[in-house]
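Inverse folding, one chain.
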């Protein structure tokens, strides 16, 4: 979806990707730059509740990977919907690259908050969610924490990604309605069923 209407400043976001390895798909032609970017002010936002607690389990590895690259600025979400506040604080602090460790919900909320602020900052992601579909759709190696930390520290390359809007609600990856939303709302808070 390409809708960069007047209701949001900067409805396109820049994301960090490795050069050459991940080519854009035919339905999503994203411009890339092959030159490495200069060192930037980088902050990692991580969501301990993402992936039903996977974010909390991933944090020691996340911290070690980024500290090995000389990056030590970490903040965590405290409650649902906290992403917008953390994005605003990062912008106020002059952060140029915001690394979001979470899943589709955390990434989407952070991306929308970044775009609504009209910030020129870019966003990178590390997978700590359940599905991590946004990273899969963009062919980003978000599950490899060490590789992403090295990529982000070295600058990587940028790709522009459009946001969509339905009934005034902005989204970064996918919008659902009808049956999908009913199932999602009904399953919220229920335990994961496992086989024998």
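Residues assigned per position:
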């Amino acid at each position: 979806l390409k809708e960069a209407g007047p209701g949001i400043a900067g409805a396109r976001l820049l994301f960090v990707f490795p050069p050459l390895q991940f080519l854009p798909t035919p339905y999503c032609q994203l411009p890339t730059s092959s030159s490495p970017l200069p060192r930037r002010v980088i902050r990692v936002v991580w969501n301990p509740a993402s992936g039903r607690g996977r974010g909390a389990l991933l944090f020691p590895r996340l911290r070690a990977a980024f500290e090995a690259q000389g990056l030590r600025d970490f903040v965590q979400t405290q409650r649902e919907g906290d992403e917008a506040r953390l994005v605003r604080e990062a912008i106020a602090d002059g952060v140029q690259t915001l690394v979001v460790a979470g899943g589709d919900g955390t990434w989407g909320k952070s991306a929308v908050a970044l775009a609504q602020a009209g910030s020129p900052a870019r966003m990178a992601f590390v997978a700590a969610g359940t599905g991590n579909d946004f990273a899969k759709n963009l062919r980003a190696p978000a599950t490899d924490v060490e590789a992403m930390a090295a990529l982000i520290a070295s600058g990587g390359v940028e790709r522009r990604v459009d946001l969509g809007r339905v009934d005034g609600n902005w989204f970064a990856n996918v919008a659902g309605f009808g049956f999908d939303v009913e199932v999602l709302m009904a399953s919220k808070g229920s335990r994961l069923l496992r086989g024998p």
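The first strand starts at residue 12 and ends at 17. The beta strands are 12-17, 42-46, 74-76, 97-102, 122-127, 157-162, 164-166, 169-171.
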